[in-house]
Amino acid sequence: MPKELSYTIEEVSQLLKVSKLTLYDLVKKGELPVFRVGRQMRIDANDLDTFIHREKRTDSTKFQPPVRELNKNRIKDSAVIVISGQDFVLDILGKYVEKRTSFKTLRSYTGSLNGLISMYNEECDIVSLHMFDGDTGEYNLPYTKKILVGYPYVLLNLLSRKAGLYVKKGNPFNLTSWGDLNQDGITIVNREKGSGARILLDEQLRLNEISARNIKGYDHEETNHLSVASAVASGHADVGVGIEKVAKMAGIDFVPLITERYDLVILKSAKTEHLISVVKKILSSSEFQSEVHSLGDYDILNTGTVYYDSF
């Protein structure tokens, strides 16, 4: 049997020099066929070639993001929805959505702020958020109010979890607070711009009047919690910001500093009315909450709570 060549979304994104969100949008519209291996999407090489030949243009718009031709606040006609965020619980949510609706769910592993911006551009259907606002001490709502201007939406809780510092076994620098990041000799590993962990760090540095320029390793970025924890575990960094569960996975110590609210936002429209209703029922169900609770290190006390519901 001849070997069939296929690509991941990440690989096609690099090949075509476009964002992964652009590709998710093409998939949702049915313009770029995909198949799945487990929960990972793959694109057949022949389908990619067909798409490229079909889309070839002689003008400067070649491979630019597609024009948004649809009205605000609607799920596209495709039976596919995109869930943005990195926590494993979002995969569980996707599984429940597929069980209770005709939708197929795709995952975009994008940070909170970038996911919210993609929702503003009508590229995502469910976005997960954990963005700390230092001025109010509140999570998520200050950002959604500023970015989703003109959009009605619902913001509801998925879970809460501890966030803080990843440190080496024994915490050799005795780090116990955000202010301790200003110690001499400490090397940090950071998250990418737009991620909730990056926002948390930047806000805490601002509140503690610590200049990022004075922190060694601030420009060393990783794109997920596990990579940050691994950098600390391997000795490439002394400290990083992340969540409790991943510290245990990486075999390092964890200094809890804040309980972060991990929420979901969904735009409201006639097209999303059913989706919102289903997600609310899933989050409130004992079956979903028991499965999340069994994972450990997640607080489900407020799971399903609606924190904001605009007109």
Automatic annotation (TrEMBL):
> InterPro entries attached here?
DNA-bd_dom_put_sf (IPR009061), HTH_17 (IPR041657), PBP_domain (IPR024370), SinI_DNA-bd (IPR010093)
Which portions of this protein are annotated as coiled-coil regions? Answer: none
In terms of superkingdom, the source organism counts as Bacteria
Domain (Helix-turn-helix) spans 7-54
The protein's matches in Gene3D superfamilies, at most eight in alphabetical order, are given as: Periplasmic binding protein-like II
PBP domain residues are 99-282
GO MF term set: DNA binding
Q: What is this protein called?
A: Helix-turn-helix domain-containing protein
Query: Which species is listed as the source?
Result: Mesobacillus zeae
The secretion signal range is none
* PANTHER family per the UniProt record, alphabetical: BLL2305 PROTEIN (PTHR38431:SF1)
